[in-house]
Amino acid sequence: MKILVTGAAGFIGSHTSERLKELGNDVVGVDNFSPYYDLALKKLNAKTLLEKNIEVLKIDLRSDDLSGKLPKDLDYIFHFAAHPGISNTSTFEDYFSNNILATQRLLEFAEQLPKKPFFVNIATSSIYGLEATFPESVPPKPASWYGVTKLAAEQLVLAKSRENKLEGTSFRLFSVYGPRERPDKLYTRLIDCGMNNKPFPLFEGSEKHLRSFTYVQDIVDGIVSVIGKETVCNGEIFNLGTETESTTAQGISTFEEILQKKIETEKKPPRDGDQSRTKANIDKARKLLGYNPQTSLKEGLIAQTEWFKNNIYH
Questions:
Q1: What is the C-alpha radius of gyration for the chain, rounded to an integer number of angstroms?
Q2: Which of 23, 45, 74, 238 is close enough to 14 for a disulfide, judged by CB 3.0 to 4.6 Å?
Q3: Of 37, 95, 146, 291, which is the active-site residue?
Q4: Which domains does the chain have, with CATH numbers?
């Protein structure tokens, strides 16, 4: 099968591209190489993919001529491209253009293809709001620009399914970590601070936040399980994550155990829209997709630390 992966130079998109290639698919990646974080990391990911015969094209879904630049004989689109997370330096326009406008333009491109690809939207637990412990049937209450715009993108995809114009599904991901994690995320920052003897910036109250920290390969297991289950997945939303909860303080403690050193912290003001609790309710994914995440937090952090040592640490 021929598969398009947007946001392929990013964290989860790059891992999914690799897995899809390993499964015998022809994978084409696209990324706009946004400067949201250090471009060197995205270029490193793209180089790793190219070594595995996966080319990542530089395309901006918001403005480029998609019909002229993207392949037309697609079986699947896995849509990771987005303006991620909660950032005080990001504007609403950043979230709107990357998450809503880009998704709509990609859907319009897919809709006009002679053979309609199955559209897999990658969403987030931030759609649920300040507490994300619910099944997919619960009405969402997003509390950040990120959550609001990702909900809108999800509904754009599901609207096409309801109109019978495209088949598609949406996966809401919970607190993904592992090798290639973005530098603004918890564990990459923690590893960087621990290994380079820098104080770790800890947002006030966040040490008590509960998270379904989910290893990236467990997330990829769930994402690629859609293949062959198109009829079951069409028009549906699925939570993907681990049912195991850990506090941020427990995560810090686990990493200190791995590194065998104490991490100094530096208190920062709390962030607006930051979730107090996430616990993935994956009953639906277990039942319909056979989803079963297995990696413990310590196992995943060991792998992430090794990747950091080999690729980032100087």
A1: 19
A2: 45
A3: 146
A4: 2-173+216-240 (3.40.50.720)
Predicted TM-score (pTM) of this structure: 0.93
The Cβ-side half-sphere exposure at 297, using a 13 Å CA radius, reads 22
pLDDT digits (tens, 9 = 90+) for 227-264: 999 999 999 999 999 999 888 888 889 989 998 888 88
In the residue annotation, 146 being an active-site residue is answered as: yes
Distance (Å, whole) CA 238 – CA 285:
6
For the chain, helix (H) and strand (E) counts, in that order, are 12, 15
Alpha carbon distance 99, 279 (integer Å): 24
pLDDT digits (tens, 9 = 90+) for 96-142: 999 999 999 999 999 999 999 999 999 999 999 998 999 999 999 99
Dist. CA 187–CA 214, nearest whole Å: 12
Contact 281, 241 (CB under 8 A): no
Closest listed residue to residue 168, CA positions, set 208, 121, 207: 121
Which of 301, 253, 313, 289 is CA-nearest to residue 136? 289
